[in-house]
Design goal:
Elements (H helix, E strand, L loop, with lengths): L2 H10 L10 H16 L3 H14 L4 H13 L3 H14 L4 H13 L3 H14 L4 H13 L3 E11 L3 E15 L2 E14 L3 E16 L4 E11 L5 E14 L2 E11 L10 E11 L4 E11 L4 E16 L2 E14 L4 E10 L6 E9 L8 E14 L3 E20 L2 E2 L8 E9 L2 E12 L2 E11 L4 E12 L1
Antiparallel strand pairs: 1-2, 1-20, 2-3, 3-4, 4-5, 5-6, 6-7, 7-8, 8-9, 9-10, 10-11, 11-14, 12-13, 13-16, 14-15, 15-17, 15-18, 18-19, 19-20
Helix pairs in contact: 2-3, 2-4, 3-4, 4-5, 4-6, 5-6, 6-7, 7-8
Amino acid sequence: MTLRTLIIFLLFGTAASLPAADPESTVRLLERAQSLASSKRFDEAARIYIDLLHAQPASREPMLGLARIRLWQGRYREARQLFEGLLARNRNDADAAEGAATAAYWSGDFRTAQREFREIVKAHPGRKNVRRSLDELRSASASIESIDVGLIDDDQPFHAARSEARASMFTDPLTRWDVSVGAYGLNSDIGGHHGVPFAIAGNETVIPSKRLTATLSLGAIRTPNGRTRPIGGASGRIRFARNDSVTAAFARREILSNATQLYPFVDIASIRWLHTTPWLASIGTEHDRFSDRNSANAADGYILAPAVRRKGWTLWAGASALFRDTTESRFYVNGITATRDPSGGFFRYSYRGAYDPYWTPHDLLEGRVILALEHRIGSTTTMKIQGDGGRARDRAVMFWPDTGPTSFPREIGQSPFDRTYRPWRLRFTSTTALAKGITLDLSVEHSVTTFYRANSFHAALARRR
């Protein structure tokens, strides 16, 4: 008796300790369990199968039914053990072999799943679901080439374009290698016009036994001041439930999205929980350490759920929240206007400030309501329009004095004050399958806060083969 068979034997008891079941009653119970399972009443169906196994530990049909229930419930490890228990009794049980391979597939162990599906096809070439799963695995591990272009135009004024070409390949179904090359084109009144090339290499490896996905990337970017800087990061994502995962990450990123002649970097340590189906949600926190020794802490979260589904249309509704605080401000005066008072005795001053070289909010709290309308057109196109808006407050900086005897203030001071405003954003996205293995993603966005307005465009063309 194998170890797995012994475990199942001890779990469900012995046939000698329980009365034999009536064959007609068993058939009716099996039909009842199958009906409950087809209605997704999995717990009720599982109880029937378990009761049958208590009475008949050696019975194949209840164990096969229970294994499938656990598979559909996302309890992949338990399902695979049950399928393997059936295989221990009969190595030619094609249903059990397919179930065990599917449990490996759905749990993310693509390497094991691919090997076992291939063995099933050799022994049972007529099983369509197995062939379909093999085709899906081949597609999931196909090489990918993509071209990505993004544009941003804001009121700093600042204009930037980012282009990137990426190639990805799999050395096995669980190991992917990426290589990216690209460049920024930056243009602002303060910083001038510059090209900023970069290159990044990365790896993603899935370790199913640990439910872990590990990523590592390393690259370099050459900033307009002629210096080459390292960029990249590392992360680990653990899936602790079928649709839930936690990711811990560290990354070094460039900051090029400001009208400035300085080009800082930021080291980001973060942790985030993500839920994916059927509703979307995320909660995360991060600590940022900037290259000028400044630092910031942030936390955010959102939830988005399908409120209405009808004939290819889905209305999503949800909310988001954000907190962010920076140790030191980088908000400075970059313009002063002096106007002589009609009395002629003094000047009135107005100040223009800007974040230089990056955004440094103090005690920012923000809440937004999110609405999105998604439409699927056949199997080739998905379009979504999303709007979000709400209320925010922070501690902003004001400059003084308001008036003075000269056309330029003799001394400029600054003081914090509490401020509230209403941020909002509107975004359109679409994904279209242009041909077999070729997809085009597009997005357009307009965003507004109390101090910043921006328009952005993004396009990505990918080919999988």
